[in-house]
Amino acid sequence: AFEPIHAVSGECPFVYLRRQGAERIVVAINPGELPQNLSLPLLEGAETLQAQHASVVGRQLRMAGVSFGIF
Asked: What is the mean pLDDT of residues 41-57?
């Protein structure tokens, strides 16, 4: 299943949830040049699977410009 978590026209980042059975993966993409921070309770305790200039601290998603993260 695919579920948008943060998808606002003209805003970054774009964050969505992929779910299959009990497995949940959050994908965050910031194609813009400006850094972005977003509070998402869903990310608390998340493991970083792969990221480029993106991290999770507590519930806070921190992304540099032109970055992505898979959590």
From this structure: 97
